Amino acid sequence: MTTPSGAAGEAGGVGGGSGGIDSTLVENRRFEPPDAGALGVGRWHVGSAEEYRRLHEESLADPEGFWGKEAGRLAWFRGWEKVLEWEAPDARWFVGGTLNACYNCVDRHVQAGHGEDVAIIWEGEPVGPVTSHASPGSKYAAEPEVRRVTYRELQEQTSRCANALRSMGVKKGDVVTIYMPMVPELAVAVLACARLGAAHSVIFGGFAPHAIKERVADAGSRVIVTADGGYRRGEVVPLQKNVEEAASALSGEGHRVEHVLVLKRTGHELPSRRFNTGSVGAGGAVYHWWHEAVGGASDACPCVEVGSEDMLFLLYTSGSTGKPKGIVHTTGGYLVYAGMTARLTFNLMPDAGQVFWCTADVGWITGHSYVVYGVMMNRVPTVMYEGAPNFPGNDRFWSVIARHRVTHFYTAPTAIRTFMKWGDDLPAKHDLSSLRILGTVGEPINPEAWVWYRRHIGWDRCPVVDTYWQTETGGHVCTPLPGAVATKPGSCTVPMPGIDAAVVNERGEEMPAGRGGLFVIRRPWPGMLRGVHGNRERFVSNYWGRVKDPATGEPYYFSADGARRDADGYFWVQGRIDDVIKVSGHLLGTMEVESALVSHPGVAEAAVVGMPHEIKGSAICAFVTLKPAWLRSEGREPGESLKKELASHVAREVGALARPDQVRFAEALPKTRSGKIMRRLLRDVAAGVEKITQDTTTLEDFSVVSRLREDED
Ligand code: WT7
Question: Alpha-carbon Rg of the chain, whole angstroms?
C-alpha cells in the first residue's frame, strides 16, 4: 500500500534543519466538483472555483468585514464592539459581545418554530444476543435501539441537566469533566454546561483511570459526569469504575471530586454500582443517578449570558512532553468558526433533508465541532452511533447509513483502510444511495484509500472532502469546498476562507511550489486556541515561538506539521515533525507512553517511536531498557511474556489506544553526546522490523551504533 511521504507519522525530525522536507508522492488524478443538480443537493453555498477564490481573497483583504458577517449568523445577547483585538499571540474575538452556546445550538431553533425538528438521531450498539438496559428482558433485539431527540426535547433535557449540575454547585467559570459513552446524554451534558456558562472537558471513553486523573486534576474539576458503562463491540466498558479509581487516586493527592453524576446505560450489576443517589462513594465524592438527579430537576433554566471570550471548553491533546495539554477554546470565536466550517465544508443547510454523520467520538475535537456544535448550529440532524464499526458484523456502518438515510458521512483514513481490508462486498450489500458528501479527517489519507472511498462508498458521484485541521484550530483550516474546489486524492487542497495558510522555512519565507516546509497560519482566526490551560509558556513556545513574519517579526501560528504546496497552490500535509505519533488518527505523545513504561518497576528507560502500519497509519514501537536487579529479584526473563506485560501496562495507564504494537528490549538506548535519545535512528530500526526480528537475539545492543552516531553528531 502506498502512503504519502511522512503519512505514517514518520516525518518526525525532518523539518528540524533549514526547512527542506522532500516529498516523493506524485499524484496526478483530479476530480472536478459535481453539478449540484446532478448530485441532488439543491445548491452549493460556494459553487465555483472562481467564487471560492473571490471569497478567500475578500476574506483576507477585509478580515473584520468577513468575520463580522459570519458572526452575524449567530444569536447574540449583546453585539460586539470590535471584531478582533490582536496582540500576538493573544486574540480576542467579537470583543464586548455576549451570547450562549446552548442557546445558539438549541433554544433559538425552538423559538424559531423548529422545536419538533430532529436534532439527534441516535443508534445504540446492542443488536442480537445482548441484554440492553434500555430494553430489559429482550435478550435478542433484532434491530438496534434508535432514539430521535428533537430540539424541544434537547432544550428540556439540557435545562434539567443544567439545574442538576447547578444543584451540585456548578457555576459559570467552573470546569465539568465528562466521561461518557456516545449516547444523547453526552451531548446533553456538554450543552448543559454551556447553558450554565460552565466549561466542559470531555475525556474520550477509551482513556484509563490514570489519564482521567491527570486531566481532572489539571482542569481543577470538582464534578464528573459519567455512565455506569458503555457498549463497545458487545462488551461493557466500565466507565464508572474508571472514574471511581481516578477519584480515589485524586483524593489521595488532595484533590477531592465532589460530585459524580452517573447515567445508567448498561445497568450491569456490580456491587459498587448499587448506590443510592446522594450517597458518598469512591474518592469521597457524592454519587447521583442521572435519572434521579436530572429527571427530578426543573425543566426551566435560562441560558446564562457569557462573554464572547469566556471559555467554552477545555480539550486535552497530546504534546511532546508527558503531560497532556488542555487546549482552551472560547465561546464566540469557536462557535462562529465551527458553524461556518460545517456550513461551507459540508454545504449544510436546514430543511434540505440532510442527515449528517460524523463517526468521531465527542471525546475528540472532531466530535465537538462536527457531532455537536457546528452541525446543531446549522440545524441539520446529527447522527450519533454508540459503538464499534464491527459489531455485530463488519458492515455495521453501512447499515447505519442505509437505516437513517445519511447524506453526509465523515470518518477517518484509518477506518477507511480497515473497510478496504474487510472487502468491497460489504458496502455493496447496503443501500448507500442517500449519500451526497464524504469527508475524511485525522491524518493524511493515502490516495489508494481516498479513491476506494470515493468509488465504493460514494459510487463515484459524491465529492470527497479531505479536511486538515487540529484540536487547536477549532475547525477545518484546509479543505476542498465540495461544490467549488477540484480534488486530488491525498491533498487537503486549499485554505478555508479567512485562513492565511502557507508553507514556509524556519525563517518564515514561503517555500517554492513542490518544496516541503512548515505548515503555518499567518494571521489569527476565530476558532484558534486561546491558550494551554495553566501553562502560558507552553502556549507561547509550542505554537508561536518557532516562525515569524520575515518582514514584521510578527509570530506565525505553527501547526507542528510538515507540508508542501504544489504548483496549483494545493496543500499536501506530510505529518508531524514533533514527538507525537498519530495512531489510528489519535495523537499520542511519545513522552506520555514513555512515562507509562518507566512507571513499571522493571523498566529503567524507554524510548517510543512510530513505525509505519498498514491500517493505523503508524503504530507504536517501544524500546525498553530493563533493570537487571529487578529481573534477578523477580526471577523474570526479558521474553515475550514480559513484552506483553509492558504493553498491557501502557494500555492500563494511558488507554488501549496507546498499547504498543512492538516492545523491544535494548541494553542501552542510543543517545547523542548531550544525552538526547536518537529517535531518528530508532525510527529506522523500527521501520526495518522484519530484518531484525529474524535475528535470534531478543536483546538489541545499540551501544555500537550509538558510539558511531555520536562521532557524526
Ligand atoms: C493533527 C491534529 C483534526 C481533528 C482530528 C485530529 C493530523 C488531521 C489531517 C488531514 C493530514 C491531518 C495533523 C494535525 N491531521 N487531519 N486531513 N490530513 N493530516 O485532531 O488530534 O488535534 O490532530 O492531525 O498532523 O496536526 P488532532
Answer: 25
**Single-letter residue type at 208:** A
Say whether domain 580-712 belongs to CATH 3.30.300.30.
Answer: yes
Q: Atom 18 in ligand 1: which residue has the minimum CA distance?
A: 444
Yes or no: domain 8-98+318-572 corresponds to CATH 3.40.50.12780: yes
The residues spanned by each domain of the chain are: 8-98+318-572, 150-304, 580-712
How many whole angstroms separate alpha carbon 519 and alpha carbon 61?
21
Q: Look up residue 18 and give its three cell numbers.
A: 533549514
Q: Judge if the beta carbon of residue 471 lies within 6 A of ligand 1.
A: yes
pLDDT tens per residue across span 560-611: 999 999 999 999 999 888 888 999 999 888 888 999 999 999 999 999 999 9
* Pairing between β-strand 199-202 and β-strand 311-317 as defined by DSSP bridges: parallel
Can you give the pLDDT at residue 323? 86
Tell me, using a 6 A CB cutoff, whether residue 467 lines ligand 1. yes
Share of the chain above pLDDT 70, in %: 90
**105 burial class (0-12, 13-18, 19+ CB within 10 angstroms)?**
buried
Q: Whole-model pTM?
A: 0.90
| 356-358/325-330 β-pairing | unpaired
In angstroms, rounded to a whole number, what is the distance separating the alpha carbons of residues 279 and 466? 49
Q: Check pLDDT > 60 for residue 707.
A: no
Write the DSSP symbol of residue 465. Answer: E
Ligand 1 centre and the CA of 469: distance in Å? 5
Distance CA 617, CA 157 (A): 40
Q: Determine the residue type at 538.
A: R
According to CATH, the topology of domain 150-304 is Rossmann fold (3.40.50)
| Position 330 confidence tier, pLDDT thresholds 50, 70, 90 | very high
Distance 467 CA to ligand 1 centre (A): 8
Q: What is the rounded average pLDDT for all residues in the chain?
A: 90
DSSP H stretches of helix in 197-238: 209-219
> Which grid coordinates are listed for 24?
516523493
Mind giving me the DSSP string for 133-176? Answer: SSSTT-SEESS--EEEEEHHHHHHHHHHHHHHHHHTT--TT-EE
Where do runs of H (alpha helix) occur along 390-458? Answer: 396-404, 413-422, 425-428, 447-452
Say yes or no: CB of residue 366 within 6 Å of ligand 1.
yes
How far away, in angstroms, is 441 Cα from ligand 1 center?
A: 7
459 C-beta neighbours (distance < 10 Å), count: 13
Quick count: other Cβ atoms within 10 Å of Cβ 137? 6
Helix axis angle, 640-653 to 590-598, nearest 10°:
120
31 CA to middle of ligand 1, Å?
Answer: 23
Cα separation, 399 vs 14, whole angstroms: 42
